[in-house]
Amino acid sequence: MERRKLFMKHVKEVATLTGISVRTLHYYDQIGLLSPETTDNGYRVYTEEDLEKLQQILFYRALDFPLKKIKNIMDRPDFNHLEALYYQKECLQQKKDRLETIIHTIEHTIQHTKGEQPMTDKEKFNGLDFSNNHYEQEAREKYGEEAVNRSSQKVNSLSHKEKEALNQSFRRIYQKLATIRHGSPASEEAQKAIHEWYEFLNNNFGYHYTLEAFRGLGQMYVDDPRFTKNIDQYGEGLALFMRDAMNVYANRNN
After folding, report:
1. Any bridge partners for residue 46, and if so which?
2. What is the Cα Rg of the chain in Å?
3. SS3 content of the chain, % helix, strand, coil (to 5)
4. In degrees, to the nearest 5, what angle opens at C-alpha 172 toward C-alphas 166 and 177?
5. Strands 44-47, 37-38: parallel, antiparallel or unpaired by DSSP?
6. What global pTM score does this model have?
7. Ramachandran class of 42: left when φ > 0, alpha when ψ lies in -120 to 50, beta otherwise
8. How many other CB atoms are found less than 10 A from the CB of residue 142?
9. pLDDT-derived band of residue 121, with 50, 70 and 90 as boundaries?
10. Could you read off the pLDDT of 86-115 as tens digits, one per residue?
């Protein structure tokens, strides 16, 4: 606590340091995203740890994460500061690469407009597909879509009795996870249940999930509203809990 007290900045100082308005900092406090300490005389002050947290928030904002999602991520009991930095760095590098592609498209278009270089219709739109979130779509393509499609084919080939038995096992695992969803996804109980889910997927759906594919599938549970809605029928917040538990499982068994 002593180290925290030695380093304290007032709201206006933080606003000047970061370029964030005082009003925005007050809003972060209001929604519980970043709440400073209050001194005996009523001043709100930020510690060194608060500034580190604010830096994390702004990294996520640079990736266009909504504030609600940032709060959910950072409030998780297993949130890891260093892991988040590596993830943010990777995503921002991808964003940088995409922006460089768009800049190149603009330069090419300028040359084409001036009659200096030909340009195909396809080249005119390099880097300009904004129909989906770039990072979420990449995760789906890399880890999830093939697994989902092959799983559907496998299930459709089963008899009615086989499907019912599969559904019963499916519901049992989800119900078990729902009862522990308010605890830590890194707990022994959670990891035992998520291991059962991993084995269930690999043994019943005609597709072998690597640990990275399993991690990616968990991310889909949160990124795709259809998955979230279906999973959260068993308990609100279950999709997020499963995503985090699957991520821990992949890290521990890698």
Report:
1. 9
2. 23
3. 70, 5, 25
4. 130
5. antiparallel
6. 0.49
7. left
8. 12
9. confident
10. 888 888 888 888 889 889 999 999 999 999
